[in-house]
Design a protein that fits this description.
The complex is a heterodimer of chains A (346) and B (459).
Chain A lengths: L2 H20 L3 H19 L5 H32 L10 H15 L7 H8 L2 H22 L5 H18 L6 H18 L5 H24 L5 H4 L2 H4 L1 H14 L8 H13 L4 H26 L22 H10 L12
Chain B lengths: L1 H16 L5 H17 L10 E2 L5 E2 L3 H19 L8 H23 L3 H10 L1 H11 L4 H31 L4 H7 L7 H17 L8 H8 L2 H22 L7 H24 L4 H22 L2 H32 L10 H4 L1 H14 L6 H16 L3 H24 L15 H17 L12
Antiparallel strand pairs in B: 1-2
Helix pairs in contact in B: 1-2, 1-4, 2-3, 3-4, 3-11, 3-14, 4-5, 4-6, 4-11, 5-7, 6-7, 7-9, 7-10, 9-11, 10-11, 10-13, 11-13, 11-14, 12-13, 12-18, 13-14, 13-17, 13-18, 14-16, 14-17, 14-19, 16-18, 16-19, 17-18
The chains are: A mainly alpha (346), B mainly alpha (459).
Amino acid sequence: MNPLIFTTILMTVLLGTMIVMMSSHWLMIWIGFEMNLLAIIPILMKKYNPRTMEASTKYFLTQATASMLLMMAIIINLMHSGQWTIMKVFNPTASIIMTSALAMKLGLTPFHFWVPEVTQGISLTSGLILLTWQKLAPMSILYQISPSINLNILLTMAVLSILVGGWGGLNQTQLRKIMAYSSIAHMGWMTAVLAYNPTLTMLNMLIYIMMTLTMFMLFIHSSSTTTLSLSHTWNKTPLTTTLILITLLSMGGLPPLSGFMPKWMIIQELTKNSSIILPTLMAIMALLNLYFYMRLTYSTSLTMFPSTNNMKMKWQFETKRITLLPPLIVMSSLLLPLTPMLSILD
Amino acid sequence: MLKIIIPTIMLMPLTWLSKKNMIWINTTTYSLLISLISLSLLNQPSNNSLNFSLMFFSDPLSAPLLVLTTWLLPLMLMASQHHLSKEPLIRKKLYITMLTMLQTFLIMTFTATELISFYILFEATLVPTLIIITRWGNQTERLNAGLYFLFYTLMGSLPLLVALISIQNLTGSLNFLLIQYWNQALPDSWSNIFLWLACMMAFMVKMPLYGLHLWLPKAHVEAPIAGSMVMAAILLKLGGYGMLRITTMLNPQTSFMAYPFLMLSLWGMIMTSSICLRQTDLKSLIAYSSVSHMALVIVAVLIQTPWSYMGATALMIAHGLTSSMLFCLANSNYERTHSRTMILARGLQTLLPLMAAWWLLASLTNLALPPSINLIGELFVVMSSFSWSNITIILMGANITITALYSLYMLITTQRGKYTHHINSIKPSFTRENALMALHMTPLLLLSLNPKIILGFTY
């Protein structure tokens, strides 16, 4: 794509999210979402083939539906409160509709069906933008309306997302679908604590974005989109296998890596609010996630996957540029001792 | 405590910056020096604990375990030299780094004051162990072994995290130094029963309890020698140590909640001992023997009498040294015949008499021959369980008999009789191997002269 046009479109995506995050008028939020959606379609379709077209169409349809539901919720809110300022949502119906709309945008169960298919159909870099940047805008709205969200719906969606994210990823070998299901599960963790302490939602979002960025960068670096091609990285850059191991274990939430921090904080917050069974269930279901991460690490770093002799002598023509990988890796694995610093997030 | 932790952490740069012919020498020497530092902790002057800071402390329970941990690192390094000799230098360094990382986490776990810090480090020990088992194990079953190990332990310990946080809510602090003075009886309610279960299941899986022990034979058998040594000697004791610490907070539910686990342990120790009699795989035999000994520790911890605590602690230390030594002996067989089948390497006394002496000593301590500390541990446990309920003497007596049976079975199969025709070309014992066995046996024999340092905090 023409670099100038690509820059403009990317800036529009960024601008759209910024408008959503910084507005105080509900209409501007809707405009921000639409700007974001329309601008990201060309980015999703960087490679022009039917698969990408299908993925972009699915994304557009679901997100447009969500935006329309959001508009309906905004109008109902306007009817009941008489003003457009974003504080909390004044009517329970509007609140439920808005939560469902934002869940559709985020990819929470029961609106998660588009995430694996869209992520699989697009290139790795677009998938990166989809799974990290696109979550910021809906999550910021959820943060702002968090006092008025119906707790039952929120927790049901959260727990079901963790379950679906864990269970759905079990049968996957395509890396993008694995990352998609991981995204669904992490969104579930984030929304579970939204009603209790939204700061932890932001913390989880931050650490999730760091880890997902790291994973995608590592995949882009080794140009691998399937488990099989990832298993050849020991030949190309052996260090990458160790990095993949560490980042995947961090995503699975194993101490002493930083992926444990959001889970620990969320469990602590939930337990302080006297719900004991819920965090136990959530933590156990996160083990499903850990299982397919472990399977990835097995094929990549801990064993030598069966491969033909040709694969053992792979040529690499140019090194791909990996931006910011070392700081990202450090941050996605070593942040746990800095947990007391959480107080700055308030 | 930093005087132990920082040198252990610095073993990692030492490994990476050493020259090719010096890595084993450097790391073994310095880890031996670190273990000498930790011996000073055994001097526990008062009934109270030695408090080094708000975050680290050592009391008569954790000091012997700490000394065992630091003693074991040089032994692990010595034992791994042979099977890593053909690997490229970076992989050797990675292996030593994994062992050192595991050592650091273990030291911090045994000395942690804050229970959540204990939990995080307890879980953190899983990652290097998993990498050691899966990356450097020898058979295809190691993948399954790693998964069983990781997931059994995690399933047990996630409820522990929730339980610890809810206890912190209740009591305001989880610092062990505070809690031991502030102990209140736990009110009797359904949720406290689940709290008891959540707290204990993590350690039951780790010990392991008989019904949850499936991960242990897999993990011990598939791990390389250093992995087997550290797992048998230390990681199982993490479970015992955790149980000993957390039962102080869980009264009075323990008096009735402990019954199912006591039954499982009492029956389990007989079952696993009996399974040992029918094993063909040498490492598997030693693994099941570990389950059996640890079942005794579980019985001791759940009875909660002063003598049983003394027995539990002594048994943990004694079993650590004995089991690690047995794994080293089995590994010396494995390195020669590349098979773990017992009968393929039989009649070794004729070929390797000095090693046969070590086999004899190890088997004798395994069956708890007086006056070794194994006997002291087992005897205290048997006596205290007799005072808890007279009938247990039948099961305990049967267990001691069967333990003797399988230990002697192992000894006679590997050492006595005519050797097979295919092993008369094995290499003679290396000095390294004899030194390894001596370093295992010497503390064991010396401790029988002054066992009170390993008898724990109820002495």
